[in-house]
Amino acid sequence: MQKYYKISVIVPMYNVEKYITKCAQSLFEQTLDNIEYIFVDDGSTDSTITVLKNILERYPNKKNCVRIVQHDKNKGVSSARNTGLKYAQGAYIYYCDADDYLERNMLEQLYNTANRTDADMVWCDFYMDFKDDTKYCSAITAGNDKITLLKKYISYGWNVVWNTLVKRNIYIDNNLHSYKEYNFCEDYGLMVRAMFFANSYAYVKQALYHYNHANTNSLVNTQLNKNEIKKTFYDELAINLLIVDFFKQHNLYPKLEKELSWRILKAKRGYLTSFKNRKTYMQLCPESNKYIDSNPLCSKKDKFCQKIMISKYWSWLLNIIDFTVSIKKYFTNKKI
């Protein structure tokens, strides 16, 4: 007979031997009962699995509700989450990052709120933990007006999976998975679609999750090389273009055009490095350009560069700048 689980916790792992102890302990010590834990090792090359198994020995009562799945090679966090979802049986799904940790009552708080309000989705505030400091971060408030909520969420700065509990049937009934090809901005790509399919929402105004901003190995915090920067840029742009197409398919784009355009403008910033990119820049959601001035997601510098990019009267100036830089490089290299 299959056991009933209130929540399935899915934890993608990749080379997190330094962090998985604290994460796993915070999960195994949750005050809520009937939790299923699915750890997906995404081809780690360190001692992540060994460390996890050693921790599990300290919690023998959890062994029967823990599943460890291993990828034969690194496929990325999105694929790891999708793998975990295949095995999940809980009424609700919760995704946790392996280098972070939870307050002991987090899942109980979210589950009880969801159960009391019959919410398809429930989320909470969170802490951002730096090396020498902790910052309280507020999530968006909830409401059952879907369009208003989507507008708030799309224009919100932190679109993440790890502060949100979602009914499993939202994923299963709608064949909803992470976009497996992309590993940056992937949280937004999944959760904004879950929000569309959900019909009721709840918000716990309490910080219950600790995001480890001190982990220099995470994609968000690490110093990236040029190829990695390009990959994150293309991932963010691709995710946002996919979401635009998603809402067009569901006939909601006209109502969300401004907010979606803000995100597209933010994602297109990688093309601002040279006026040679102008054609590509202009072809990507050209309607978004009319929202440059109102965009809260871009800095004044970004907006200035965007206006230059779309203005045909500024092209001569950009060409002169590019030419000047090329001449400078030529003579610099010649001296060498």
Based on CA atoms alone, the radius of gyration comes out at 22 Å
Number of domains: 2
Order of helices and strands: EHEHEHEEHEEHEHHEHHHHH
Separate helix tally: 12
CATH superfamily of the largest domain, please? Spore Coat Polysaccharide Biosynthesis Protein SpsA, Chain A
By helix and strand content, what is the structural category?
alpha/beta
Q: Into which percent range does the helicity of residues fall?
A: 40-55%
How does CATH name the architecture of the largest domain? Alpha-Beta Complex
From the N-terminal CA to the C-terminal CA, the straight-line distance is 76 Å
> How big a fraction of the residues is strand?
15-25%
Shape: globular
Low-pLDDT sequence parts: 218-222
Mean pLDDT: 91
CATH topology assignment of the largest domain: Spore Coat Polysaccharide Biosynthesis Protein SpsA, Chain A
Counted beta strands: 9
Largest sheet: 9 strands, mixed
Which descriptors apply to this entry?
336 residues, alpha/beta, Spore Coat Polysaccharide Biosynthesis Protein SpsA, Chain A, 2 domains, nine-stranded mixed β-sheet, 12 helices, 43% helix, globular
